[in-house]
Write a structure and sequence with these properties.
The structure holds 2 protein chains of 2 kinds. By secondary structure, chain A is mostly helical. Chain A contains 12 helices and 2 strands; from the N terminus they run H-H-H-H-E-H-E-H-H-H-H-H-H-H. Chain A is globular. Chain A starts with a helix and ends in a 19-residue tail after the last helix. Chain B is globular and about 60 Å long. The chains are: A mainly alpha, B alpha/beta. The interface between A and B is large, with 56 and 54 residues.
Chain lengths: 313, 339
């Protein structure tokens, strides 16, 4: 009997892990693509908030979540376009632009929400994405519930990751992206349009972040509140570094973070533990730092990361 | 390079401007009407718009009642969430001879303390504050008492109860202590789980916390106290089909089958009580007004008859008894208790 309870508990933690990791997978994979091309997009938090707001608002007004998602992708593209305009064409400092994006996202999403809906915060909800049980697979013991009884955005995040792996490492386009991130001048000499590649990759990071944010407001929960992203955009930056700027590593990083967040929630709720809750709360962050420390040394980040490219020097 | 700097500055300026999303200051007030020789003047200061369907609106409606019931001359000023304006706003009212200045929010405490000695005849109240010094009087609700009553309901309906708080701050800790004491008073064997989120905006985190309590601890009944993040808990209750309590307003819509009772508070009533005391000259200086259940209309418990399991008659009786005991001070809702 004890054993069964233990297994059910573990299953619960793993189901939670997947849900907690999904927004990080979206924003993380998007960021990997941008960073492989040499652009650091630290404005993820802001873009995630805009995505969360857009998805919820369009979904609410139109009654169609698909339309909401389409709007989210458009907002992601626009955000990416503006970010690329500043960082690639104008060659502004990527960190500064990213910080500005974060402030913009927090302010703009809150401002628009209040303008549209007054201050009746939380008084409006929509019908969010429901879990889809994949036939046959969802009946598998133990892992069926964890992997195959989730909502469509959870599945999409894994598809997004697989696509990124395929494009980055198995296509000519992927080679072009990586060469732009490593040595843009050499890539330029080879006839690769550095600006175009960087623009497209930053657009992808915008879409990834916007989808990650939208997951929170239209799939995980069914409301938008100001600052609903609550720091997930910043965590994404650490996870991508943890994942060595690679899609698989980032996926694993997101899952580990989700796992430790789920564990800390469970540890807190155990009765009779006298350790302050802050210790548990710090656990996922602490583990991320520890993991980062353990893999110092190897030069694995794209060499041209963060450096604007000036064609005619 | 110059071009870049200018563009980046413009972008940042835009970002900062869009961050200032709170509406501009507006001074709306009823014109003083010529009345009796010495009119009773009451001013209200809020940190945001008074149509917020919440805290500030409760203050404004309280002010309207003060006008209607006490015949007071009233005025109100909406300030931005900008502490540098608070002291001047209080001083302005005080120098215009207002008898009572109601600073609606704990944020005004420092400004009130600073201005108070210069205007000893003026009473300055600070809402949500439970401290008082001479003519600065805190007006607060007795949170542990209010939540003790909710605990009685929880203890009557479940053996495993979960609490989800925003941060471990005194008001939330106090509410949980009261809640646990109430539950234990009717069900000594009730077990508690507590999770703090570390913030008040992570709806998804709150939802996950609630779901994990249900899945791994077998929690059957939930109490959130995390401002807007509480919404995540209501969603989790609806999804996992467990019972819960709606706090600080009628939340039934968010889990129509699962919320068994809502706790709604009204600060406007509390302000009205203070204004009456000031007008009658019965106000006690240096003593905060902490309103418990004996004050009519300050706290309301709204049962949801359409819940999957409505609060049973026996529990409602226990609630009435508990209220009486709390009013008579026969039980201490803040007694030390372990989960």
């Amino acid at each position: 009997m004890e054993d069964i309870q233990w297994i059910v508990g573990l299953q619960g933690i793993l189901v939670a892990t997947i849900r907690l990791a999904t927004p990080l997978i979206f924003s993380g994979i998007g960021l990997v693509i941008a960073e492989q091309a040499g652009v650091v997009n630290i404005g993820l938090e802001g873009i995630m908030l805009l995505g969360a707001f857009t998805g919820w608002t369009i979904g609410f007004y139109s009654g169609s979540l698909i339309l909401g998602l389409a709007a989210v992708i458009i907002v992601g593209l626009i955000s990416g376009l503006i970010f690329a305009l500043f960082t690639v064409t104008i060659r502004a400092n990527q960190i500064v632009v990213g910080v500005a994006f974060n402030m913009l996202g927090i302010g703009l999403s809150g401002f628009l929400y209040r303008t549209l809906f007054g201050r009746e915060i939380g008084l409006l909800k929509l019908e969010s994405f429901q879990s889809i049980e994949i036939p046959f697979l969802s009946n598998l013991p133990f892992i069926g519930k964890i992997l195959f009884q989730q909502n469509i955005l959870v599945y999409s995040s894994f598809v997004f990751c697989l696509l990124a792996i395929y494009v980055l490492y198995h296509t000519a386009a992927g080679l072009a992206i990586r060469s732009v991130g490593e040595h843009p001048r050499a890539a330029d000499t080879m006839g690769i349009n550095v600006f175009l590649v960087r623009y497209l990759c930053v657009l992808m990071s915008g879409v990834g972040a916007a989808l990650g944010g939208a997951f929170l407001s239209i799939a995980y929960t069914n409301i938008f509140v100001e600052n609903i992203v609550s720091g997930r955009g910043y965590i994404t930056l650490a996870i991508v570094a943890f994942g060595r700027w690679k899609p698989v590593g980032t996926l694993i990083g997101a899952l580990i973070f989700g796992l430790f967040y789920a564990i800390q929630l469970n540890l807190q709720s155990l009765r009779g533990i006298v350790i302050p809750y802050h210790v548990f709360q710090a656990l996922p962050y602490f583990m991320t730092i520890l993991a980062l420390l353990s893999m110092r040394g190897r030069a694995i980040r794209p060499k041209a990361l963060g450096k604007p490219y000036e064609p005619s020097a | 390079m110059n071009r870049i700097r200018i563009l980046v500055s413009v972008l940042i300026a835009f970002a900062i401007l869009s961050g200032c999303s709170s509406p501009a200051t507006s001074a709306a007030g009823d014109q003083p009407t010529a009345g009796a020789a010495k009119p009773f003047k009451v001013g209200l200061l809020t940190t945001g718009p008074v149509n917020d369907k919440g805290y500030n609106q409760q203050g404004y409606e309280g002010l309207q009642r003060i006008k209607n019931e006490l015949g007071a001359e009233i005025s109100n000023v909406e300030l931005e969430d900008n502490p540098s304006l608070y002291e001047k706003a209080i001083r302005d009212y005080a120098s215009q001879g207002y008898d009572l200045i109601m600073a609606h929010g704990k944020q005004f405490q420092d400004a009130a303390n600073t201005v108070a000695p210069d205007f000893p005849d003026t009473i300055i109240s600070v809402t949500s504050s439970s401290v008082a010094k001479d003519n600065v009087i805190g007006v607060a609700l007795d949170i542990p008492q209010s939540f003790y009553v909710l605990g009685v309901i929880a203890g009557s309906m479940a053996d495993k109860v979960g609490m989800i708080g925003g941060q471990e701050i005194p008001s939330i800790q106090g509410s949980f202590t009261g809640f646990m004491n109430g539950a234990r008073s009717v069900n000594p064997d009730v077990e508690f789980s507590v999770v703090y989120l570390g913030g008040f905006t992570d709806v998804a985190g709150a939802k996950e916390a609630a779901l994990s309590m249900v899945a791994s601890q077998g929690v059957e009944f939930l109490l959130p106290n995390a401002n807007i993040a509480s919404q995540g808990v209501y969603q989790a209750c609806a999804e996992a089909n467990v019972l819960c309590i709606g706090v600080f307003g009628n939340q039934t819509d968010f889990a129509p089958k699962n919320i068994v009772v809502n706790y709604a508070s009204d600060f406007g009533v509390a302000l009205n009580i203070l204004a009456k005391q000031v007008k009658d000259g019965t106000v006690v200086r240096g003593k905060p007004i902490v309103l418990g259940l004996e004050a009519q209309g300050v706290a309301a418990y709204l049962y949801n008859e359409n819940a999957n399991v409505p609060v049973p008659e026996s529990a409602r009786k226990a609630v009435d008894e508990a209220k009486q005991k709390l009013i008579n001070k026969e039980v201490d809702p803040s007694a030390p208790v372990t989960p």
